[in-house]
Amino acid sequence: MLHSNLSINNKGHLCLAGQDVCTLAKSYGTPVFLMDEERIRHNARTYIDAMREFMPEGSKPLLASKSCCFKKLYEIIKEEGMATDLVSPGELYTAKAAGFPLENAYFHGNNKTDSDIEYAIDSGVGYFIVDNREELDAIERIAEKKGITQKILLRLSPGIDPHTQKKISTGKVDSKFGTAIETGQALELCRYTLSLENVSLKGFHCHIGSQIFEYESFADAAEIMLRFIKELRDTLSFTTEVLNLGGGFGVRYTDADPVIDYRENIKGLAGVIDRLCCDLDIKKPAILMEPGRSIVADSGLTVYSVGSVKTITGYKSYVSIDGGMPDNPRYALYESDYTCLIANKADKKPDLVATIAGRCCESGDLIQEDVALVTPERGDYLAVLVTGAYNYSMASNYNRIPRPPVVMLKNGESYVAVKRETYEDLIRNDM
Ligand SMILES: *Cc1c(COP(=O)(O)O)cnc(C)c1O
What we know:
Distance between the termini: 49 Å
Number of strands: 21
Number of helices: 12
Strand content: 15-25%
Bound molecules: pyridoxal-5'-phosphate
CATH architecture of the largest domain: Alpha-Beta Barrel
């Protein structure tokens, strides 16, 4: 099947991590997010080991928290020795509550408020990834008040469009993120940063986009960043310790996506970085990467119950499920591709082309259009594969629909990592 943790058992049921998805759906209810703990650990180790083996000393991956964020996940990556990036004080709060060592956390975000900055400094966050001059001034002021020196990286835009979707291409010059190298503004910002007393500049960050299946785009970004690092050494005598190349290795959502070997790609990228540092005659910085989806996406799938099959004569068929854009807004947002199948008829041949519709009062509430399915009946289970990233973390309560639980599978057993929301949860803050 699409990934090695998926299979079909002798009842014709879909299995994740060897466990019958239909049995799990029956006992936990639907919709439900299932996640394979061992797959998360395996993906984390793949990055940690390859970066340690092939890249300069100190190189390591950070989990991009936005891809999936709950306490148990931080406990898992902490055990694997993985660091993390955080984009908001809410993610920070979650990591802290999980006992995650915050000196291994990198605080992102293009508009950190003064109170976010205070909270992160008070919590002992290791590094700030600074987006702009105003933020830099605020960190300097708050760090001075607290009598500390805050380690930072500056987020720069290398001006690369890795030819992915526009909405997830963020390294171009015209972007809300970071400071452009091409315009000379990055150099000016560095000069300014080095004049400040309470921030300590350790290096630079860039992020060129997501769903990148070949390391060449990262190599292009690395080249621009390393040339800039050389320029800084030559003009400001500044030595860069850390280069963070952001997130973005791709994940196989459907058969149309290529298979990707992360270890080989990291090795290839490391080779290019080595050569560039040699040619440019600069000290090799430690490399950081920020994988999100490639750590968690293929660990997860979502199970829904089918309510109806509506065939509009002469047009098309809609299969309605008991979830939708509140638990997976990605099709509505970016027309993301997913693989869908009827989990209790996984061994049968598809005989229907249908659009999967959610339960919200919104015609754009679709999970996927025109997919081949076995014709389902009311009560059948529909599985959407590879939903471990950007599903739970993007879930909302639109239409006052409670968020599904996250159920973790491990060693033939299962446990609840995040409880299903209740109606009481929905009105908790209503006065
Ligand atoms: C989104 C994002 C990531 C993670 O991207 P993936 O495609 O999930 O790997 C990492 N870093 C930054 C700055 C991001 O915006």
